[in-house]
Specification:
It is a single chain. The chain has five helices and no strands. The chain is elongated and about 65 Å long. The protein has 135 residues and is mainly α. Helix 2 crosses helix 3.
């Protein structure tokens, strides 16, 4: 093997390595866009830039976010936004939903079956209506 053959071989390996790195980057970009689309997020390549939020974080918290983002194959910013959106949806769903115990559900359904007017409930509605008018 001559010196030019070795240079060609090394050059070929570097070319292959560069091509693989380019493919991996492209896959990573596609994966980030797929994750963002699945979470209902907009990526900068699809729409114009959105609003900006800035927050301070401890060095340890930043390291955790960077590590978690690298494990998911996304940037720390994408990770923070995606997790914030997920947490917001869960919080809204949990706090805006009314959950009844089995006993409360049965009482609620019985209230529809009663044909007799419950004067205490009527008084509550009257009080609430009077209160709303005064606002």
């Amino acid at each position: 093997m001559s010196g030019s053959d070795i240079v060609f071989l090394v050059g070929g390996v570097l070319t292959i390595a560069a091509a693989l790195a380019g493919k991996l980057f492209a896959r990573s970009l596609v994966r980030r866009r797929q994750i963002a689309a699945r979470m209902g997020l907009e990526t900068s390549g699809q729409t114009e830039r959105g609003l900006r939020m800035e927050r301070r974080i401890s060095p340890h918290g930043k390291e955790l976010i960077e590590h978690a983002a690298s494990l998911k194959g996304i940037t720390p910013s994408e990770f923070v936004v995606s997790q914030s959106v997920i947490a917001s949806r869960e919080t809204i769903g949990r706090l805006e939903a009314t959950r009844l115990t089995a006993e409360d559900r049965d009482a609620f359904l019985r209230a529809f079956e009663d044909e007799e007017v419950n004067e205490e409930v009527v008084d509550v509605y009257r009080f609430q209506a009077a209160f709303e008018v005064k606002r």
